[in-house]
């Protein structure tokens, strides 16, 4: 069935005879001298792929290189390699980078896939298969690919009872009940998919952590998964609940400066490594949304992080310590808290700690300016946290290609060390020469047949992996490959689908939160619009706090006359954004409270522009449906219809957003809607 289970590894049969012939010509034999669980995985993947795409069973050999062989090997098994590839170049590959090169070995044309470790060979193999999947030529190849970040990791917010926080694709794929004895095929396919896009780590459990996962029974289960993932180059990580020493260790305190607590974590780390020798480390959410943390003992975030870091260090593990802190006594602006707390700690973290920062200062909104911590902590490696699951972006239903959002954030200039200090250079460690670097994506994976609920959710998973490997890559190129591998190589199908995807994120911003509006979703589920006061738990949990609409205008004043959050950015950004005339309009209401009659760049009033943006968002969903409808005959009906029905829901809900927000804001603006805006009935 074309249910999407095979993701972008569809390995669709290549119908074009000439093309298939040309591929077969270059794949007479596959020579793989190395022996490991990873080379077994490579053989397995090649067997599946070549059988499906070219109806051939590849012949594997260990030596005896012949004409038109593919040779997949590390330098140790290829004594003659230096004739073709210099030591310098090999050194530059590290342990994960690879080269795919067409060479003439003893006057015979062969295709070489090489790298310094078996995992690199696996990455190279997937890249090679991608060429076939996307119908590229495989002659005269010279591809060199080295990941720009070290830790490329999924964060599952999966609970031990198999519910998934902010998960919209069924239940958790981790069947804790049947682990460690039963290994579900889905774990293997999960590892294949992740390895194919360069992901090398996974945090199995929710950051709102359950200490039980650190007990022996669960460590054993996690170890079974770690064993499945290891040949795919994927390490397992767990979330560590800060109060675990008390909850599962019977200690009276979890104070990071207490010696018994330190001993407890040291022993715990040793225990974990005895089960999982390649354990990656911990991800921690502390002192946020009710999670325990060092603040409970009057200690800093650094003291908390270092406690765990020291326990892991002798084993080679790392700590990813989240900067997502905010609490009830948030002073005047929740957006300021992480910066206020973390910036002063720069330089105090152990060398195996990464501070993991969400892309924006509030919370995974359809559009946020970059987080002011990027550029503010030069002595600390900062890791990017993106959300792949669409908590605030239509969840499992709306088609929103998030890579555009990722790309926008990564390419933004922080000016922290003058022009060119982009977020991406902070993330990959190049700006400050950090050895550790990483990118985390909050997973959108669940037990649904198609993994992500929405077929296009797969694209976000795929793009996240690709950008973690190379955060300088283009979202559109990534999408093109994904479309071809997932659906079809038909140029019209690719260009039309690419067009829909490319515009989808801006469409969502338009019909949800245009011009810098944010967090006006339903207060707890975050799905539909709710700009009104709901159940008022606390100020920063109600939408009115964020949009501040009144008869005098709309928007959150974060300039010096307001919360002054802008002063957390570099002086250049602060200056540019402080003036509404030079602040990019896409961030206008994030930083400014402006009258309804404020004149926008277009000459229209703020009220008119706001209304027109909402209408544009709706129109974009309608156009997307029209475009998709032209593709009915281009792919299988099963996925075509599935996608179409979701798009229709999206269009309906875009109207819901427009009508709800405009009618609500109109109470304050008391102005008529522009003619171009469809009137709610
Ligand atoms: O966005 C908020 C979510 C919470 C989440 C939290 C976090 C895991 O609404 O569900 O909790 O962020 O990132 O810690």
UniProtKB/TrEMBL annotation:
For whether the record's keyword set contains Hydrolase, the answer is yes
Enzyme Commission number(s) of this protein: 3.2.1.131
Query: What residues does the Alpha glucuronidase N-terminal domain cover?
Result: 7-128
Output the InterPro entries linked to this UniProt entry: A-glucoronidase_C_sf, GH, Glyco_hydro_67_aGlcAse, Glyco_hydro_67_aGlcAse_N, Glyco_hydro_67_C, Glyco_hydro_67_cat, Hex-like_dom2
Location of the Glycosyl hydrolase family 67 catalytic domain: 132-451
Q: Which Pfam families does this chain map to?
A: Glyco_hydro_67C, Glyco_hydro_67M, Glyco_hydro_67N
Tell me where in this chain the Glycosyl hydrolase family 67 C-terminal domain is found.
452-675
Q: Which UniProt keywords apply?
A: Carbohydrate metabolism, Glycosidase, Hydrolase, Polysaccharide degradation, Signal, Xylan degradation
Subunit description: Homodimer.
Protein family: Belongs to the glycosyl hydrolase 67 family.
Q: What protein name is recorded for this chain?
A: Xylan alpha-1,2-glucuronidase
Organism, scientific name:
Echinicola arenosa
């Amino acid at each position: 069935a074309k249910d999407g289970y095979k993701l972008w590894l569809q390995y669709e049969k290549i119908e074009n005879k000439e093309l298939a012939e040309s591929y077969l010509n270059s794949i007479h034999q596959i020579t793989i001298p190395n022996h490991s669980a990873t080379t077994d995985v490579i053989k397995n993947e090649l067997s599946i792929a070549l059988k499906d795409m070219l109806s051939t069973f590849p012949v594997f050999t260990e030596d005896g290189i012949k004409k038109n062989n593919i040779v997949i090997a590390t330098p140790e098994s290829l004594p003659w390699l230096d004739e073709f590839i210099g030591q310098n170049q090999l050194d530059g590959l590290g342990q994960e980078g690879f080269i795919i090169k067409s060479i003439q070995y003893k006057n015979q044309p062969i295709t070489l896939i090489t790298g310094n470790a078996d995992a690199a060979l696996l990455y190279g193999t997937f890249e090679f298969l991608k060429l076939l999947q996307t119908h590229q030529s495989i002659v005269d190849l010279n591809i060199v690919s080295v990941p720009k970040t070290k830790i490329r990791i999924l964060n599952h917010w999966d609970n031990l009872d198999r519910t998934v926080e902010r998960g919209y694709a069924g239940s958790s794929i981790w069947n804790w009940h049947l682990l460690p004895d039963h290994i579900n095929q889905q774990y293997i396919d999960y590892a294949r998919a992740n390895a194919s896009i360069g992901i090398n780590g996974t945090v199995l459990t929710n950051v709102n952590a359950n200490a039980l996962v650190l007990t022996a029974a669960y460590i054993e289960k996690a170890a079974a998964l770690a064993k499945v993932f290891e040949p795919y180059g994927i390490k397992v990580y767990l979330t560590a609940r800060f109060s675990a020493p008390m909850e599962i260790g019977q200690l009276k305190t979890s104070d990071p400066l207490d010696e018994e607590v330190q001993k407890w974590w040291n022993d715990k780390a040793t225990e974990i490594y005895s089960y999982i020798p390649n354990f990656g480390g911990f991800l921690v959410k502390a002192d946020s949304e009710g999670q325990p943390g060092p603040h409970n003992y009057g200690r800093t975030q650094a003291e908390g992080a270092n406690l765990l870091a020291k326990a892991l260090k002798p084993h080679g593990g790392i700590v990813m310590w989240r900067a997502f802190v905010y609490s009830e006594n948030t002073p005047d602006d929740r957006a300021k808290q992480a910066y206020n707390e973390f910036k002063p700690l720069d330089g105090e973290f152990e060398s195996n700690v990464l501070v993991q920062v969400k892309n924006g200062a509030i919370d995974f909104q359809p559009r946020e300016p970059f987080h002011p911590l990027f550029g503010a902590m030069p002595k600390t490696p900062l890791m990017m946290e993106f959300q792949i699951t669409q908590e605030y972006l239509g969840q499992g239903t709306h088609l929103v290609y998030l890579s555009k959002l990722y790309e926008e954030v990564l390419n933004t200039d922080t000016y922290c060390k003058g022009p060119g200090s982009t977020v991406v250079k902070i993330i990959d460690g190049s700006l400050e020469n950090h050895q550790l670097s990483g990118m985390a994506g909050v997973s959108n994976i669940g037990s649904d047949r198609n993994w992500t609920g929405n077929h296009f959710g797969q694209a976000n998973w795929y793009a996240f992996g690709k950008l973690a490997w190379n955060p300088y890559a283009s979202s559109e190129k990534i999408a093109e490959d994904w479309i071809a591998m997932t659906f079809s190589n038909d140029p019209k199908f690719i260009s039309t689908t690419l067009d829909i995807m490319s515009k989808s994120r801006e469409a969502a911003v338009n019909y949800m939160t245009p011009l810098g509006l944010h967090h006006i979703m339903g207060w707890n589920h975050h799905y539909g619009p709710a700009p009104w006061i709901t159940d008022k738990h606390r100020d920063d949990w109600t939408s009115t706090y964020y949009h501040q609409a009144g008869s005098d205008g709309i928007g959150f004043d974060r300039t010096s006359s307001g919360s002054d959050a802008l002063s957390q950015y570099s002086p250049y950004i602060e200056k540019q954004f402080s003036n509404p005339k030079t602040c990019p309009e896409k961030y206008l209401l994030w930083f400014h409270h402006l009258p309804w009659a404020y004149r926008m760049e277009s000459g229209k009033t703020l009220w008119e522009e706001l209304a027109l943006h909402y209408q544009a968002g709706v129109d974009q969903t309608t156009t997307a449906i029209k475009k998709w409808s032209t593709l009915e005959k281009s792919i299988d009906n099963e996925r075509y219809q599935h996608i179409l029905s979701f798009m229709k829901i999206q269009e309906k809900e875009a109207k819901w957003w427009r009508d709800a927000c405009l009618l609500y804001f109109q109470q304050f603006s008391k102005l008529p809607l522009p003619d171009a805006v469809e009137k709610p009935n």
